[in-house]
Amino acid sequence: MKLVRRRGADGRIPVRTLDRGASSSAAEPAGYPGGSYDTSLLVKYEYHVARHLWFGEERGPKKELKVAGHGLKLTSRVPLALPPQMESWISRSNLSSLQRTSLNKIDTNLVSAFVERWHLETSSFHMPFDEMSITLDDVACLLHLPIRGIFWSPQDVTEEVAVDYLGVSQGQAQSHVRSCKGSYYKLEWLYDLFVHHKVASSWAYATRAYLLMLVGSTIFADKIFTLVEARYLLLFTDLYRCSGYSWGAVALVTLYRYLGDASMYNCKQLVLDSRYFPTVGKRGENWKPADKCGLPRAMRWSYRQGVLKVDDL
């Protein structure tokens, strides 16, 4: 008895077809070569980069993703030394660890190799040995962000929010949002507000601009490199309550979303702060044996330029 297997143009096996006289019980489920044959769960696999790689189709001339990081911008725009009037609010927010967790260099080959194995339906990397993922415990250990607290649901905002909580005029807020072509704030604009309000001793406004700039350069980094969504300002309307949010959970959700987008074949760029993938390297100068819980673990390693390419990984 001979079984005839026909593939579609995309290489998918729609069904196992049988010669005359064969039993229909031998029918094979739909699937992809080199991938899952049960596509009821991995419903996005048709658009996954792994399916295209199976047929030798790369994302483009460069096999690795363009990975955007804001480490250098964070260093230049977000100073570690703050006025004491702001320091108490920053410490209370549970976000101060983000000031020291960004690396200036990223191993794009290593990140690209992991992304090619990420599946958004399972939120995990499908490795040859098993599945693995980035968990809330990893976020807590790497970034020292709280993983318990209030879960925040995004809401739409208007220009009045900037007027009330960033200390700008209605005209300034409207003009800036129009220049951004959406409900965004430019990181440079926030930095200017931070400097202006600090000079004017308007500490609440300066702190909100600072915190929004901080999360916009790290856990809420945008692919456009220069913007942060305006709705995140709602997290800092009450500077005494913002410590109650589960910052680790929202950081992980955002990371999952970006990894899911980057795993699609038509995506060429990924925003990913390198602290999630610190690269196998040596212990950095900041690490001290007695420092068991002071620095976030993401800063206990110094970056070493990798020599392996995507194919090797």
Automatic annotation (TrEMBL):
GO terms for biological process: meristem maintenance. Residues 99-265 form the Aminotransferase-like plant mobile domain. InterPro entries: AminoTfrase-like_pln_mobile, MAIN-like. Transmembrane segments: none annotated. Pfam families: PMD. Residues 1-31 are annotated as: Disordered. This is Aminotransferase-like plant mobile domain-containing protein. It comes from Pisum sativum.
